[in-house]
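Q: Structure tokens for this one, please.
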Amino acid sequence: MIQTWVIWNLCSLENGIISVERILEYTNIPSEPPLVIDESRPDHIWPSEGEIDLLNLQMPFILRGLNCTLFGGKKIGIVGRTGSRKSTLVQTIFRIIDPTVAHIFINAIDISTIGLHDLRSRLGIIPQDPIMF
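A: Here is the predicted structure, written as tokens:
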């Protein structure tokens, strides 16, 4: 009887410790940049041209020194083998992932200087496998 009680309490303690570890992991997750930065809000018609300039884009183990210009109004395909991190480029443009070194400009505005809402609400993407719901 006492042995059952001890084992039960040890299991409960272990579950509690795991919960505390998860909470500590969540508290150590870096917060996202602000949604809106009042000092540097883009014009309401931004991006009017849609030109994206990637300058020296670097991501550890993924990209090294990528420089390119994606012109607005053009269809662009990003191709590569499965797992070759094609989606990382798109995640970087949407600032879901911040690169270690880079300057990304959309219509000559550095996207690191504007809020996430101003950026993400004005960009669109068509996924490879579109889903209708």
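A few notes: The first helix runs from residue 2 to 27. The chain has two domains: 1-30, 38-120.
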